[in-house]
């Protein structure tokens, strides 16, 4: 994994997704795929993205509705993709909050040029974020409470356990997504964003440090379990306040 822009391609046609993914990968982008709105939301929960390529015609909730919902809670750049080329569709897409609009069929060179232009404009405005700013919250799990307002971890007996920035970001990624297998790449994206290290073993070191602070027996962890070939899973139930 590296700091290359991460693009989420949302299209119900697998052939289109694969073609786009190959073209973008050749140009140095990182690419993830989703077939519909539900898969898109899951992907956004599990990772950070710099731009979304969003097809207009999707099964279930269509691209315009998804675009409107995304724009209400995030400033992540969106390029609408559609087989429709009429001006009215383009205008509606832009009014819903899309940053650009590209009718199918399109060439890979034009697509890449549009992506780079939108990313450039987004960087000029502000650093892109895959999710809206979240209000402070507390997360209670096992015998611990994580307070995001003070970025502090409290033990049941009232003792505050210090966390480094990396440990805090990693623990926050876990408590926001309990009982879900997260790959090392996802954790690097969620915990460190575009500043992530270029090798995924870095996350193993952070996990080991975090285990030493929250596990009763770090050598036999029960809160943060390793999923061989998959990553890690945060096992306890989490109560949010």
What is the class of the largest domain in the CATH system?
Answer: Alpha Beta
The number of domains is 2
CATH fold naming of the largest domain: Rossmann fold
Low-confidence sequence ranges? 127-132, 194-200
- How helix-rich are the residues, as a percent range? 25-40%
Structural class: alpha/beta
Question: What is the number of strand segments?
Answer: 13
Let me know the average pLDDT: 84
Query: Over all CA atoms, what is the radius of gyration?
Result: 20 Å
Shape: elongated
CATH homologous superfamily assignment of the largest domain: Response regulator
Short description:
Helix content is 39%, strand content 21%. The chain is of the alpha/beta class.
Topology, element by element:
Layout: E1 6-10, H1 14-26, E2 30-34, H2 37-46, E3 51-55, H3 63-73, E4 78-82, H4 87-95, E5 100-103, H5 108-125, E6 138-141, E7 144-147, E8 152-155, E9 160-161, H6 165-175, E10 181-182, H7 184-192, H8 201-214, E11 224-227, E12 231-234, E13 239-240
Parallel strand pairs: 1-2, 1-3, 3-4, 4-5
Antiparallel strand pairs: 6-7, 6-13, 7-8, 8-9, 10-12, 11-12
């Amino acid at each position: 994994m590296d700091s290359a822009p991460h693009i989420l391609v949302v299209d119900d046609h697998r052939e289109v997704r694969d073609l786009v993914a190959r073209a973008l990968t050749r140009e140095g982008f990182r690419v993830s795929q989703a077939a519909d709105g539900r898969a898109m939301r899951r992907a956004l929960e599990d990772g950070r993205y710099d731009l979304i390529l969003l097809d207009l015609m999707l099964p279930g909730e269509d691209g315009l509705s998804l675009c409107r919902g995304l724009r209400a809670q995030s400033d992540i750049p969106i390029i609408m993709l559609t087989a429709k080329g009429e001006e009215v569709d383009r205008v509606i897409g832009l009014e819903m909050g899309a940053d650009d609009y590209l009718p199918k069929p399109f060439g890979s060179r034009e697509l890449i040029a549009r992506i780079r232009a939108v990313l450039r404009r987004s960087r000029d405005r502000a650093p892109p974020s895959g999710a809206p700013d979240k209000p402070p919250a507390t997360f209670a799990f096992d015998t611990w409470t994580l307070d995001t307002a003070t970025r502090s971890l409290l033990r049941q007996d009232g003792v505050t356990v210090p966390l480094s920035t990396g440990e805090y970001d990693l623990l926050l990624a876990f408590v926001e997504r309990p009982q879900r297998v997260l790959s090392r790449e996802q954790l690097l994206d969620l915990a460190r964003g575009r500043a992530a290290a270029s090798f995924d073993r870095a996350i193993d070191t952070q996990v080991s440090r975090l285990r030493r602070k929250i596990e009763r027996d770090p050598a036999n962890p029960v809160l943060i379990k390793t999923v061989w070939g998959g990553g890690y899973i945060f096992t306890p139930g989490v109560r949010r306040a």
